[in-house]
Amino acid sequence: MKITKDLYQSNLVLLTDFYQLTMAYAYWKAGKGEQEAVFNLFFRKHPFQGGFSLAAGLDYVIDYCKNFRFSGTDLDYLAQMKNQDGSPVFEVGFLDYLKNLKFSCDIDAVEEGTVVFPNAPLIRVRGPLIQCQLLETPLLNIINFQTLIATKAARINVAANGAPVLEFGLRRAQGIDGALAASRAAYIGGCTSTSNVMAGKLFGIPVSGTHAHSWIMSFDTELEAFEAYAEAFPEKCVFLVDTYDTIQGIKNAIKVGEILREKGKEMVGIRIDSGDLAYFSIQARQMLDEAGFPEAKIVASNDLDEQIITSLKTQEAAIDVWGVGTKLVTAYDQPALGAVYKLSAIKDEKGKWVPKVKVSQQSLKINIPGLHNVKRYYSKDKAVADMIYLEEEEINPRGVVIIDPIDPTRRKRLMPAFYSEEVLLKPIFKEGKLIYSIPSLEKIRERAAQQLESLDKTHKRLVNPHLYPVGLEENLHHLRMELVLKSQNFENEKNEQE
């Protein structure tokens, strides 16, 4: 089956914040537009107070960059913008520059389905300053949302502990694209299917769904509705049993299940969408078993999330399949990931890379300078630690110390020679050309499952997870501290002079 890869099939270059364009114009005016720079996209805290996040959205990033160009209508729109005095916001020369602009950046990124942690780059962009700047907003828009939803889906699947999770949040999603991106990210995070038919077409995700309460209500009796549905779909009957009375609904489902069996077919199961899910699922299991339907599945829905699923499991609810919608596709309890995009190095006139750091009174907001990458160390397929390091530095195989970027007192000694390792940032674009072989969504989903399996279960706890070690290699830590102190001294001297 051929899956559509060009998601939008047109440029979305104006899907950006206006200040990206004003900065681009100012760079051009200052003669800095082609100056080479490096930016990193990363997040500072896990969502949902969790212990891991799951990277998603790279396919959309690739699609965006492949179509990065300013069309005639884009330039016409920018040309008609006026300042308060009636003069054009952008000079004709700048618009001509944009007209001839061709994407030429290097992009390295963490592959989709990779477990990721705060402060480590998910995407690194290197290229002309104007292009790097113009990529900030769209990349954040894409990665923030899909990583958030993939992480939420992974947490829900951790709670489900191997039971299938169906995603059907389309009707509650944040608009059309929010629904499509959410279905894709949820599938990466472990959901087995979606109710979103367009997502099924675009991405090849299995689709699922049976009927709603309106189907039942359109007939004179619930039993008639079940019989009619069984006539239409004898191979895939899952009956929604809580329209009027859940216990009676289960009885009616059993009656129709017996009729199906006489015809050589089997009822797949029932769905409960309201009420006390623990109580009714236990009752349903007993009734189905006693009636000779031990294989019939019990599907539960009704504003579920990982916390409710965990609670239902502790109550020994007899639920085989979980249907999750609103709280998954909207990331109900945390609506944004909060990833940021920061300049980390720029080339001077001599062609030398100059590391850059943003200083803040909040240590959480001090970025990591230089051209850096991330290595993950494994011991017998289990992830041990992530090290953020300067690419030009040689790593001592006999031993390194990684230092927490927020709390320098938290350190861990690693012996790289005793571990297998994986460099997490992989080349995606080189001088604007796509060099990465894009995996299928199934392969991405498999990677996500393997990555989650590589984490110790303590890191996957839904409440108070154990902290996974992520640290700066010593030389990078010292560089960062040197730049911070230098910046502070400069500011002090400046204040004294004033």
Task: Give me the CATH architecture of the domain at 210-302, please.
Answer: Alpha-Beta Barrel
Count of DSSP strands: 21
What is the CA-based Rg, rounded?
Answer: 27 Å
**CATH top level of the domain at 210-302?**
Alpha Beta
Shape field: globular
InterPro entries: Aldolase_TIM, N/Namide_PRibTrfase, NAPRTase_C, NAPRTase_N, Nic_PRibTrfase-Fam, Nic_PRibTrfase_pncB, Nicotinate_pribotase-like_C
Domain Nicotinate phosphoribosyltransferase N-terminal: 14-144
Pathway: Cofactor biosynthesis; NAD(+) biosynthesis; nicotinate D-ribonucleotide from nicotinate: step 1/1
EC number: 6.3.4.21
Description:
It is an enzyme of class 6 (ligase). The structure is a single chain. By secondary structure, the chain is of the alpha/beta class. The chain has a domain at 210-302: TIM Barrel. It is 38% helix and 19% strand. The chain has helices at residues 18-29, 58-66, 72-79, 92-99, 129-160, 175-188, 197-203, 213-217, 222-232, 246-262, 277-290, 306-314, 326-329, 441-454, 474-497, and strands at 36-42, 53-54, 106-110, 115-116, 123-128, 165-167, 193-194, 238-240, 269-272, 297-300, 321-324, 340-347, 353-355, 372-379, 382-390, 400-403, 411-414, 420-423, 425-430, 433-434, 470-473. Helix 9 (222-232) packs parallel to helix 10. It is globular, with a radius of gyration of 27 Å. It starts with 17 loop residues before the first helix and ends with a helix.
